[in-house]
Amino acid sequence: MSLSNISWKNILLVVVFLVVLSFTMPYFGFGLLSVFFFVLGVVEWVTKFILPWIVLYWGIRFIKSFELK
Q1: What global pTM score does this model have?
Q2: Distance between CA atoms of 57 and 30, rounded to whole angstroms?
Q3: Which of 2, 22, 47, 64 has the fewest CB atoms within 10 Å, measured from its CB?
């Protein structure tokens, strides 16, 4: 998904998710700064561990389709 394909629906969904997190987390003893660090931690974790596997999967598919031609 390129930056030009991001719709207002997706942006609204992310904003609503962040607002819900910022209102619900203080009830569990976490402040707004903790919510910010939690979101950053999730993004870091996904970038470190999930994204390489996705790139590897699509890279292998590309190589296999290139070899078949």
Answers
A1: 0.56
A2: 37
A3: 2
